[in-house]
Specification:
Shape: globular
Number of helices: 8
Largest sheet: none
Helix content: 55-70%
Number of strands: 0
Structural class: mainly alpha
Radius of gyration: 20 Å
Distance between the termini: 9 Å
Order of helices and strands: HHHHHHHH
């Protein structure tokens, strides 16, 4: 393997990332532009407005990924000032966030927490194409990109705790918003103390405070999942870099 095999030195990488980034931006623009409220007792019982769409972690992480993809594409296609975007530590954060978002979404199907994908109308096809792009295609694409960055520098383990900062701040915001602002909105059910009580103390008269108490270890667990995923990606990347450097020395 030669040093020129770096994924960042291939024009095809720039083209691919530009297409992916533009698709992500376009999907969000179309989703907001053609927003339509459809009452659903279980999933969408209240109309929070079109811009509430940006309250979801998935949307925020995919918008971050869109910015990352476009800037990285430009750096590959010749904009030298954007070369720092290619640093693996940047990709580590973005890749971790979109992968976790995808895992949470997909794991919700068997538990009945994720709305089923329906393709019967043009609006539903737009809506669910966006869901598939954000939760399945983009995580897989960025994971593949990550696995190709074999010639980049190693990432120090000291950056791992920083991966949990954004999910922690986001979680606190969601919990506070649901508790103190009207209309009540929880981006995800695990931020809702009443949902948690219904799971752990069904049909029992228990104060909702215990929902928040139970939420604390769940929050710690959730943040550790982000850090754990980042640790796996970091370990895989550093091992590939080490192997690549050893092969280069042999030649």
């Amino acid at each position: 393997m030669k040093s020129s095999d770096s994924v960042w030195q291939k024009k095809s990488t720039g083209v691919f990332l530009m297409i992916l980034g533009c698709l992500l931006f376009l999907s969000v623009i179309l989703r907001v532009s053609f927003y339509r409220f459809e009452y659903n007792e279980k999933f969408t019982a209240v109309d929070y407005g079109r811009f509430n769409y940006f309250s979801y972690f998935t949307v925020q992480s995919n918008l971050s990924a869109a910015i990352y993809c476009v800037l990285a594409a430009l750096s590959v296609l010749g904009v030298r000032k954007l070369k720092p975007v290619q640093k693996p530590v940047v990709g580590l954060f973005i890749t971790t966030y979109v992968i976790i978002a995808g895992i949470v979404y997909c794991s919700g199907f068997p538990m009945g927490l994720t709305p089923p994908l329906v393709w019967d109308t043009a609006y539903h096809r737009l809506l669910n194409s966006t869901q598939v792009l954000h939760h399945m295609i983009n995580p897989a694409a960025l994971l593949i990109l990550w696995l190709k960055q074999v010639s980049e520098p190693k990432i120090p383990k000291r950056v791992l705790p920083a991966v949990g900062i954004y999910p922690f701040v986001y979680s606190i915001f969601c919990i506070v918003r649901g508790a103190f602002f009207k209309p009540t909105f929880y981006a995800y059910p695990f931020y809702n103390p009443y949902f948690i009580l219904d799971v752990i103390a069904k049909d029992k008269d228990v104060s909702f405070i215990w929902g928040y108490v139970t939420m604390l270890p769940l929050l710690v667990f959730g943040i550790s999942v982000f850090i754990g995923m980042a640790a796996v990606l970091l370990a895989v990347h550093n091992r590939q870099v080490k192997k690549h450097n050893e092969e280069r020395k042999m030649h």
